[in-house]
Amino acid sequence: MAQLLWLALGVLLLASSVADAATANYTFTVQSMKINQLCNSTDIIAVNGQLPGPTIDVFEGDEVVVDVINASPYNLTIHWHGILQKLTPWADGPSMVTQCPIQPNGTYTYRFNVTGHEGTLWWHAHSSFLRATVYGPLIIRPRNGTAYPFPAPDQEVPVVLGEWWSQNVVDVEKDAVMAGQLPSHSDAFTINGLTGQLYQCANETFTAVVQPNTTVLLRVINAALNTHLFFKVAGHNFTVVAVDACYTANYTTDTLVLAPGNTVDALVYTAAAPGSYYMAVEPHHTLSPAATTDASDSGSLATGILLYNGTSATATPAMPAMPNNSDSTAANDFYSGLRGVPAAVPSPVDVNMTIQLGLGQLPCDAAQTNCSVNAFAAAMNGVSFRLPTQMSLLEAQFGNASGVYTADFPDGVPPNGTAMVEGTKVRSLPYNSTVEVVLQNPMAFPSESHPIHLHGFNFFVLAQGLGTFAPGNASAYNLVDPVARNTIAVPAGGWAVIRFVANNPGMWFFHCHLDAHVPMGLGMVFAVGNGTTADSMLPPPPADLPVC
Predict the structure, then answer these.
(1) What is the pLDDT of residue 19?
(2) Per the domain annotation, does 14 fall within a domain?
(3) Are 307 and 207 in contact (CB under 8 A)?
(4) PROSITE patterns attached here (predicted)?
(5) pLDDT tens-place string over residues 340-385
């Protein structure tokens, strides 16, 4: 039976939340649940028995308080993707970076403020592959009395794109790590937790009922674990108005492209002939050479339905013409076509870095009991990042603990032929310094587009392109209306230049958002120091911070 969803503008309240004008309180109980999908009954870990999990729906400036109860058998943390966590770094969530994980039967209360945020973000587990099913929307509306900087929509619809395995995702990751190999492909993609009508043993289909001749705001989130995605709605165009909860100039397109971690706010005008229209999602493959075909390439797409009010729920939906899975031109055109709103780009630059992203191999670790000789590995500037095991990096920074990390992450690309090394290396940044990073993703063997996510900050995307970045090419920078983001897809054989101000003391993870690449080492950490005033100092940890 189709799942009909009516979402009037502003009416997205959850029974589990108790909110006033300043504070929104939520309780997340993380536990096992059983789902029937793709002819299988699968045990998953989810929040409050929901997939996706609860929507956090707040106004700009609110305080958010989330009590997390870990009733699952696994260690876990929750990350609030895109929340800057200004002076609340203990709430950021990446396991062993800002906290030790919440152990089974443990609890932790995340407290943070959403001042300076508007738009669509999301939350997700940040420990092992639990992110595959532990995720949900985080919507921040303009505070009361403030309007959107675009025509107010008549209706809003969150569209969370996911990835589905018919087996325990923790085992999927464990098997891959123990063998030193890439994890198995997902069995399907989902829209708001449902695969739609075109997969084997078709399950429920997410359906959004809309009124003709109205404006609908789609809040699209790529919560997929390891896959870039194309998203289309048959018979309709999109007007993109924000990405990663940062407003953009209006950009019209018929195809949205989202790297893992990205969000897009897009207006759709329901001016087509009344009828039924598929919303379709397919993978955008960027790996070269191409990997083994996954389930979505066998002729099935994850689908939802945009259904005009008055149309029969049994009407045959129109199908959009989807891009080729490997259409990098469509993806690059989408990313390069976006423009932000005019902004004061920080200048001058105090810290210049070039970070090369690389995939390769390292000798099997003794703990990798199913590994033969070499294991897949990844690195930034030749350093394959390893998380600490006894204390989080933020605790070590706050307590000046020694032996947990070294502050010697290199600012530049190592010479050709330099062997990859393992390490817990961070880059120290003075408080309030302006940092420019050139991200270089060489066309090697293998290579793929890497979605690089920065915790604790938004950054301006000043330039991006294919080939090798030419130093001194600042004349190509967009310093007028660059897009602001928290996650950027750096194309295979390409580069991107980002800039941000390090005005938030703490330890901030900078890593690939393909979750398969995190245990392989594709990350590093920025250690931002204290300022000179009370409001620029790292605060002490909360009393209930989990211990290792």
Answers:
(1) 42
(2) no
(3) yes
(4) MULTICOPPER_OXIDASE1, MULTICOPPER_OXIDASE2
(5) 999 999 999 999 999 999 888 899 988 889 988 988 899 999 999 9
What the block records as the tokens of 99 is 């906290």
pLDDT tens figures, 265-283: 999 999 999 999 999 999 9
SS3 22: coil
- What average pLDDT score do residues 486-499 get? 95
What CA–CA distance (Å, rounded) separates 390 from 387?
10
76's CB contacts (< 8 A; 6+ apart) are 30, 45, 70, 95, 101, 102, 125, 127, 128, 130, 134
532: pLDDT strictly greater than 90: yes
Query: Residues 6 or more apart from 518 whose CB is under 8 A from it?
Result: 511, 512
The Cα–Cα gap between 265 and 139 comes to 11
Domain shared by 487 and 401, yes or no: yes
* 38: containing domain: 23-141
Q: 371 or 91: which carries more pLDDT confidence? A: 91
Same domain for 43 and 131?
yes
Residue 325 and residue 357 in one domain? no
What local confidence, expressed as pLDDT, does residue 290 receive? 52
CB of 103 closer than 8 Å to CB of 123: no
- Among 240, 237, 314, CA closest to 270: 237
pLDDT given at position 6 = 31
Q: Are residues 455 and 512 in the same domain?
A: yes
* Helix then strand then coil, % of the chain, to nearest 5: 10, 40, 50
Q: What CA–CA distance (Å, rounded) separates 83 from 120?
A: 11
Indicate if 305 and 403 belong to the same structural domain. Answer: no
Q: Residue ranges of the alpha helices (H) in 363-434?
A: 393-399
Fill in the amino acid letter for 346: P
Count other C-beta atoms under 10 Å from residue 542's C-beta. 14
544: in domain: no
Which residue from 155, 214, 218 is spatially nearest to 192, judged by alpha carbons? 218
Contact 463, 526 (CB under 8 A): no
DSSP 517: G
Domain with residue 467: its CATH number is 2.60.40.420
337, 368, 400 — which closes off a domain?
A: 337
What string of DSSP letters covers 69-114? EE-SSS-B-EEEET---TT-GGGS--BTTTBPPBPTT-EEEEEEE-
User: Which neighbouring-strand residues pair with 40?
Assistant: 37
The per-residue pLDDT for range 165-202, each reduced to its tens digit, is 999 999 998 998 888 888 988 999 999 999 998 988 87
Q: Which two tokens stand for residue 434?
A: 């302006």
